[in-house]
């Protein structure tokens, strides 16, 4: 059987009794035009090892394989889908491997050992989407060529936000310190079965050239968590605790970074946060010496 000859997803859901479970954040995409559009955002996958988190009944999974991915590793927590996914594997000529487990715990680099570039595609479970993105951004080095990720729209907007935007915060600074990130597709709630309460959007992330990537994500997280955790306060106040942890004052930190201590986090651009993270790291190391 070929991928085209597989039964419609709705029939698969009925025959395998795959009703969506809220606890696993399950909202299925059954529109094949839409899944094909998302899969195409990954670019040429003919030499790629693709990875998908949460294949569920396999709508996007089929599209990734139909778009020609050389191989696909799907990580799924809910064992109910394994039968339907095995049918897709057979129809794809054995290109699909399913790993049952929690994507937050999986070491992808240990599972994807073959040659070829790695691409991540996922209609992410909303409850762990941000955590998974942070995990992939923290990898050193970043092992994937591109990530095509569907989030709830509000989270997608936070990933691509610019200084001054309402959505600008920790996620934008961390994501854009390592990647070029763009919002590629908005998807209405009614496209899903069952429809979630909010709209969704697909973000495409391409790692920046190695030399342009900011490496000290831990320091960046520390600084942005403080700065945006109290975003109404001036940086002099919101960074006081982080500065204290590095044995210095917020004023000294901001002065070394060339940033006005009376400004608020939302106006500081990504380079500004990177400078702050560098200065914080030096002070922190000096305080331990
Ligand atoms: N890809 C399918 C689609 O587009 O129709 C399903 C997407 S649904 C939003 C999220 C999927 O992720 C579900 O299949 C769910 O069981 C799975 N899932 C939830 N949490 C997970 C985790 N921590 N690790 C792996 N899979 C998870």
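-> sequence recovered:
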């Amino acid at each position: 059987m070929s991928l085209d000859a597989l039964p419609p997803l709705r029939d698969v859901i009925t025959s395998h009794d795959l009703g969506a479970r809220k606890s696993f954040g399950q909202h299925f995409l059954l529109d094949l035009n839409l899944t094909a559009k998302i899969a195409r955002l990954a670019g040429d996958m003919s030499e790629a090892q693709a990875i998908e988190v949460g294949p569920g009944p396999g709508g996007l999974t089929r599209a990734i394989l139909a778009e020609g991915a050389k191989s696909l590793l799907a990580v799924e927590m809910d064992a109910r889908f394994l039968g339907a996914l095995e049918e897709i594997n057979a129809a794809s000529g054995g290109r699909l491997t399913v790993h049952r487990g929690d994507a937050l715990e999986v070491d992808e680099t240990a599972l994807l050992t073959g040659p070829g570039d790695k691409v991540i595609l996922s209609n992410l479970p909303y409850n762990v989407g941000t955590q998974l993105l942070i995990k992939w951004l923290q990898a050193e080095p970043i092992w994937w060529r591109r990530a095509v990720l569907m989030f709830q729209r509000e989270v997608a907007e936070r990933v691509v936000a610019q200084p001054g935007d309402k959505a600008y915060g920790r996620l934008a600074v961390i994501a854009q310190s390592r990647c070029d990130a763009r919002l590629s597709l908005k998807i209405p709630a009614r496209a899903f079965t069952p429809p979630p309460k909010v709209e969704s959007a697909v973000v495409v992330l391409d790692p920046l050239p190695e030399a342009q990537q900011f490496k000290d994500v831990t320091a960046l997280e520390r600084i942005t968590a403080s700065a945006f955790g109290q975003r109404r306060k001036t940086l002099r106040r919101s960074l006081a605790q982080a500065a204290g942890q590095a044995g210095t004052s917020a004023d000294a930190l901001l002065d070394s970074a060339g940033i006005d201590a009376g400004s608020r986090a939302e106006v500081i651009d990504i380079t500004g946060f990177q400078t702050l993270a560098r200065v914080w790291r030096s002070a922190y190391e000096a305080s331990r010496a």
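The pocket of S-adenosylmethionine is lined by residues 24-29, 53-56, 59-60, 75-78, 102-104, 123, 125, 128 (CB under 6 Å).
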